[in-house]
Amino acid sequence: MEDDLALRVHERLTAGPGLRPVGAAEGHRFGLWDLASLAEGALGECADPDSFTASHEKRLRLRLGATGREYAHNDDYRRRYWIRDPTEHREGGRPRGPLGTVAVDTWPSGVGSLRVSSLYVHPVARRRGLASSTLDTVYEACRAEGLHGFRLDTCWTWQRSVRYYLNRGLWVTSWKHALGLARLSYLPRYEVRETEGELTFLVADPEACAPGVTVPLLVADTRDGRLRLRETEQYARTRDELNAVRYYARSTLALHLAVRGLPLVRGEEEWAEALAGRWCDIGDPEGLARKIDVFEQVARDDGWRLTGLYGRSSHSRHD
Fold first, then answer.
1. Is the dihedral of CA 267, 273, 275, 280 positive or negative?
2. What is the helix, strand, coil percentage profile of the chain, to 5?
3. Phi and psi of 181, rounded to 5°?
4. Which of 6, 31, 76, 82 is 20 to 30 A off residue 241, Cα-Cα?
5. How many secondary structure helices (H) and strands (E) does the chain include?
6. pLDDT tens digits, 226-247
């Protein structure tokens, strides 16, 4: 399945210096890099994917179960790329090897956005901004072709990835099967400020003449092990056409609270609604608290590593 706008985005990605399409004979190698990403996130095993032996690959895929299965790839649905460093010089007339991977769908999802997957940077190439520049490249290519941006999913238990995406300013747009995050043109830049036990969620002021001016929308703190969530006057005045901001501000702040181990439940009534299935896809913090329970239980059942997760502070949610 392909879309003309999406294909033009891929033309831009292919023409740029930071990405190289995966060749016809490189599919299995890309699959091994995907496997390395899964093994690191789920099992805590960090390794060089190009050093995998057949027995090592088999062991990892067995441990990962269905998640680690290698599927036949179809370029009609997504295009795969090697990440490379455009600032590196060529040596001997040949470019250096790949430093990471990314895949981008060939059909828009949601409202005018492309889904990103398989984002991974080799351990020796980290802390050089490669993942950030790759996401920027995808976003800019989408905007140049009239799309709003990109979406991606990550696992709650992969805390390093979750915190990275939040630090990048991605908005939380779903928690149905995994954590869905996005960078979309109709969602403004936001920041979360932590002062004296309060977390304030602010967004860029659309009416400000100077750049960098922000306005607070939500303020969260805790009392007696419960969440207190206050809406500001600016939040109450938000116009109808900005409902996406109103809606996703609550879910995005909820995830920022969760990674800090802070309570997500305001009271017994709200928690009962979450247990009954309200906010199971996206919405108020209690919905995220319930889904975290589910995500962590599924990870335990699959034998994934769980360290430093919100479950350790579950008593502050609803006990």
1. negative
2. 40, 25, 35
3. -125, 160
4. 6
5. 10, 11
6. 999 999 998 988 765 557 898 8
